[in-house]
Amino acid sequence: MLPAGTNGQINLSVNLAGKTDVAGVVPKYVDVVTDKGSKRLNLVINVLPPVIPTLTDAERARGVEMAKADRQAVFKTDCAACHARPTTGKYGKALYDAACAICHEGEHRATMVPDLHNLKVPTNDEFWRTWIAHGKAGSLMPAFSTAEGGPLNDMQIATVAAYLNTEIPSLPVPAMTNAPPPK
Description:
By secondary structure, this protein is α+β, with helices and mostly antiparallel strands. It has five helices and two strands. The protein starts with 23 loop residues before the first strand and ends in a 16-residue tail after the last helix.
């Protein structure tokens, strides 16, 4: 509260949930009421683009070793800045770009991380949902489901699976034949 006849700073809090993942301008307003009347103040909030940390080869190697020991490590400590936080409020392609492409399409993709565009097995919606939700024990692929300690809810997993199902065509399922095997 400011005493009558003075000026000063008015502190405001703005909930930017769901808006901080995109750089740009967020318009807001606040109504200020005084004994002399009210006034609507228009705010222009500049949201800066997220800072994507760059890792040295040594830092990347340390991260891979941590993930080998605990595949859920990517959702903990400093790793969460790249692997968990960017998933908030995202679905489909935007979520894939934030959570999956960082490893599967990254410039420094580890050799043990598969290129999803060149899988050698047939895929479908259930294939993608299973791998996203539960990951693969004994590998770097974490379980993204919140039920298993990951950052994604069932709806997010479903939208990424649907996106992958459309974006990455499945190999044909091998035809079953009754012909005898070749001699």
